[in-house]
């Protein structure tokens, strides 16, 4: 038996089992040996919404939710923001180390050369109604790339995977910018040379080279959203990718997962909520409605963080810096008041509900010139680095198979289809 183990007595049979414990975890498949009878299928773990299930081993991102810690490859997020660019962080995520100068030049070139979108994809984006759902536009456009790069389906080839990673990292900037321009009813733009990743995106979105302060804020937001271990969209990425689906369709699935208001869509929902509240004096009434269960406080709470989300701390500070340059937004005062009141209230204290990454980010995006509906697209732009890294890690993990959870069947037992009294009438 290994050093650490768990003894289980099955009170149905009186049998005893020893399960190995490693990394504070038992292997759920080992439960299968525990059977009530010979023809029993074996014990399963029931875990709706994966509250307590580790689906993989990962070396990418570390979170301590109780202490409010987030690290990429061991580096505290606070040290990466401001010191390094998003593209360097994307390299760090993928390769495990920050790039040296030569590595960074090569990495930037490898990505930059894929930034041109197929003209038909630009046409596709232009075919969407300007009032459409930007996350659906992005997901459709990303999925459509599968038609242009069929070699992407050779997901077992590491060189092919790397090429698709370069291409997706480049094209998601162009796609996000062109989705923004479609929302504004503006024609597509061309990328300029010599700008950073964030700068290239902003230049394509606004058709002008961004102010350094705007580029810096955008870059920080990209880093803060780059990865967050096994969240809903990353689990979608891994789940869909586990079928050996190509990275374009897989990333489109992750974008769909991110769009929901309980996940990335919360950043837009926060702005809508703050607009709905309208002024500081109406905050207590809103909080009361939340406490009565009528609404959720958007941008608050997290499955893992039971402390202040470290990303929200940095973003709050960033919001103050950006507003100093762009001029204040009255919604920031509403947000600050909402946070102040919620953090003193026993409802939120007892449930350990703190502001999360989405609470202040939408306000900054607005200050940078984006409408609220673009907020989640900007989240997706940033998270693409994390999704692709997790997808690559999945592809290299020999323990991984197709994701296929089980269920507890609660439907009717076998029964006979009733015999019809007359033959069916064909529809006219
Ligand atoms: N407002 C009010 N009550 C809340 C909130 C909230 N935002 N979040 C959780 N609760 C309450 C919930 O009602 C429950 O109370 P009770 O025990 O009395 O039933 C308790 O807190 C635990 O909630 P839960 O739903 O079991 O928690 P969860 O881990 O399943 O959900 C969450 C996490 C993020 C979906 C949730 O906190 C939420 O809906 N927050 C608002 C949406 C949001 O901001 N999402 C962004 C998440 S962070 C970034 C990202 O993932 O993209």
Protein described:
The protein contains 17 helices and five strands. By secondary structure, the protein is mainly α. It folds into three domains: 4-50, no CATH class; 75-259, Citrate Synthase, domain 1 (Orthogonal Bundle), CATH 1.10.580.10; 266-367, Orthogonal Bundle (Cytochrome p450-Terp, domain 2). A three-stranded antiparallel β-sheet has the order 3-4-5. A two-stranded antiparallel ribbon has the order 1-2. β4 (69-72) and β5 form a beta hairpin. α5 (134-148) packs antiparallel against α6 (158-183). The radius of gyration is 24 Å and the shape is globular. The relative contact order is 0.12. Carboxymethyl coenzyme *A (CMC) is lined by residues 231, 262-264, 266, 290, 296-303, 351, 353, 356-358.
CATH topology assignment of the largest domain: Citrate Synthase, domain 1
CATH class of the largest domain: Mainly Alpha
- Give the biggest sheet: 3 strands, antiparallel
Task: Identify the bound ligands.
Answer: carboxymethyl coenzyme *A
